[in-house]
């Protein structure tokens, strides 16, 4: 039975701007995305008959269509016009769940890539991203990965020059975010500040890490109730005190990350935050 092992990389938002609410209920977004080495590992096997079976090493995760990996497999068969017979998808999770790092969307994108290879459909990244659109707004970006501008619902992807080399510390507080709930709340708050998207793109083009780090900004940081905002600010401050050039929340949170030019400083921040927060990681852009 052919089996493929694929990595599903986590993403960070270097910026996240919400331009407005659309008639279809979604929001018009403008975000600079970055993939990082922190990843889930998926083993995808096709066999004759037996339907689709998804399993994960996290018992609290659903294995039916609510799991975006399962949704992606079903959508792939429909859109690519192939009957895989049966497929088994095993997911080893490392990316924190409901954390603003597109873990589920990245698993879905990895399934699309794996099935394309197993079914020998040879679809382009653009075609796989199009299939992924129906699975979730972050899936098209996750198919492409790297440094990119995502616009529209999140599905319009423009590649950008890579983030200059740096060390990244990620830290997830002990609460989870509900994306639809945060979008609803965002509709009723007045945003204090907007990210400088053009400025961060210029900094990426110039290879200017400091310029990028100075412009990290996510409008969802305005939406959290004060107790949680205090915790997010506390983690950001710890990252900065240890030498991060900038720190920001990713996606609809609550994961916070910092960009460090120095590996030693990043390690100290990782060790310090790791004493309080179990889901703290030291990683690199990819
Ligand atoms: O597309 P996805 O299923 O990942 O979106 C989850 C939820 O996030 C949507 O149901 C919607 O409430 C919100 N969302 C949005 N605008 C976007 C993307 C997501 O309002 N561009």
UniProtKB/TrEMBL annotation:
| One of the GO biological process terms | isopentenyl diphosphate biosynthetic process, methylerythritol 4-phosphate pathway
Q: Which GO terms describe its molecular function?
A: 4-(cytidine 5'-diphospho)-2-C-methyl-D-erythritol kinase activity; ATP binding
Coiled-coil segments = none
Which SUPFAM superfamilies does this one have?
GHMP Kinase, C-terminal domain, Ribosomal protein S5 domain 2-like
Q: Where does ATP bind?
A: 96-106
**Is-annotated flag, keyword Nucleotide-binding?**
yes
Q: Which family does it belong to?
A: Belongs to the GHMP kinase family. IspE subfamily.
Its job: Catalyzes the phosphorylation of the position 2 hydroxy group of 4-diphosphocytidyl-2C-methyl-D-erythritol.
HAMAP family for this protein: IspE
Q: What name appears for this protein in its UniProt entry?
A: 4-diphosphocytidyl-2-C-methyl-D-erythritol kinase
Give the originating organism.
Lawsonibacter faecis
């Amino acid at each position: 039975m052919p089996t493929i092992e694929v990595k599903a990389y986590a993403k960070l938002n270097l910026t996240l701007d919400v331009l407005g609410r659309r008639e279809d209920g979604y929001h018009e977004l403008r975000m600079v995305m970055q993939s990082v080495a922190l990843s889930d590992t998926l083993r995808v096997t096709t066999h004759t008959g037996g339907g689709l079976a998804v399993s994960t090493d996290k018992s609290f995760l659903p294995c039916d269509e609510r799991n975006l990996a399962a949704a992606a497999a079903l959508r792939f068969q429909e859109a690519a016009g192939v009957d895989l017979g049966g497929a088994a998808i095993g997911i080893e999770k490392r990316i924190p769940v409901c954390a603003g790092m597109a873990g589920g969307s990245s698993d879905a994108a990895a399934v699309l890539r794996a099935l394309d290879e197993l079914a020998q459909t040879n679809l382009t990244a653009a075609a796989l991203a199009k299939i992924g659109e129906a699975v979730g707004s972050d899936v098209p970006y996750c198919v492409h990965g790297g440094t990119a501008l995502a616009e529209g619902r999140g599905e319009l992807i423009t590649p950008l020059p890579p983030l200059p080399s740096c060390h990244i510390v990620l830290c997830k507080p002990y609460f989870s975010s509900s994306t639809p709930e945060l979008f609803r709340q965002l509709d009723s708050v007045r945003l204090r500040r907007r990210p400088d998207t053009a400025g961060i793109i210029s900094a990426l083009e110039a290879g200017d890490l400091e310029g990028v780090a100075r412009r990290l900004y996510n409008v969802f940081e305005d939406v959290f109730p004060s107790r949680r905002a205090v915790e997010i600010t506390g983690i950001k401050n710890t990252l900065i005190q240890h030498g991060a050039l900038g720190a920001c929340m990713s996606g609809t949170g609550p994961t916070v990350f910092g960009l460090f030019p120095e590996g030693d400083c990043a390690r100290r921040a990782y060790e310090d935050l790791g004493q309080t927060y179990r889901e703290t990681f030291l990683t690199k852009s990819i």
